[in-house]
Amino acid sequence: DDEERIDQFIDALFPGNPLLCIGSKQSSFNTKPREQWRGACDKMQFIVPHEMTAPLGRTLRGKSSPRTNANTGRRCYQVIEFDQLGFDEQAAIQVHLAQKAPLVMAVMSGNKSLHGWFNVRNSTEKLQLKFMRYAVSLGADRAMWTLSQQARLPDGYRPDKQKRHSVIYFNPNNL
Q1: pTM of the predicted structure, to 2 decimals
Q2: CB-based burial of residue 23 (10 Å sphere; 0-12 exposed, 13-18 middle, 19+ buried)?
């Protein structure tokens, strides 16, 4: 339906009041506590799928930024997306990957890709990397391994397509 549920999804994915990095464009992000984002995400389209450790971090070039690997906390969700496959193929692979890690949600990008959000909070980095390498071997975008890589915000707004990022699957039991 057309009811906006961004805050409900963020609350489920990131309980409490953690620092979150959210942006309206790939080049425009801010990191602040969850409660400061409440009610302010209706025009946002990106989120780092992990809690942040500080409002700012240092980039590899030494610049201060709200979105860096240096201020991104441990991996919470491994987002798996495919750009080169049809929707049915993407969905089939996401279902297959759900046998290896808990699938929390599937989000349409507003264009052509389906983003699977897999809960990896309780797995080691070695297992997370193994899972990601397997997904890449099936055609997933390897850029999503970068700790501070942004993902489509569930129910966020994509202005270039004038569409919301539809959440087509959500399983809170896998949180």
Answers
A1: 0.95
A2: buried
